[in-house]
Write a structure and sequence with these properties.
0% of the residues are buried. The protein has a 3-stranded antiparallel beta sheet, with no helix packed on it. The chain has 2 domains: 42 residues, no CATH class; 42 residues, no CATH class. Helix content is 37%, strand content 12%. By secondary structure, it is an alpha+beta fold.
Amino acid sequence: MILKANGIFVWDANGRKYLDFLGDYGLLNIGHNHPYVIEAINKVLHMPNLLQVSLGSISAALAHNLAIISPGNLQRTFFCNSGAEAVECALKLARIYTGKKR
């Protein structure tokens, strides 16, 4: 069982150190607990996250800024928690746009 991870190394319950060749399938391509990531997280610990039921001012500002930098005339933004949720939304939007049921 892995109990500790830092950079490219992980440690087991007996304190043995191993190189982590999995890197969590691309999720940790800069290593475990990278100092820049930890620093960025610490900067926003006090801020609300985007996983709120109602639209907050931070989410609204992000949506507005995305509309400004996106090509075309972006009118709506849908924030997702995962790729699966994004795909589900894309399929639903395609059905709405085309009027097709399948």
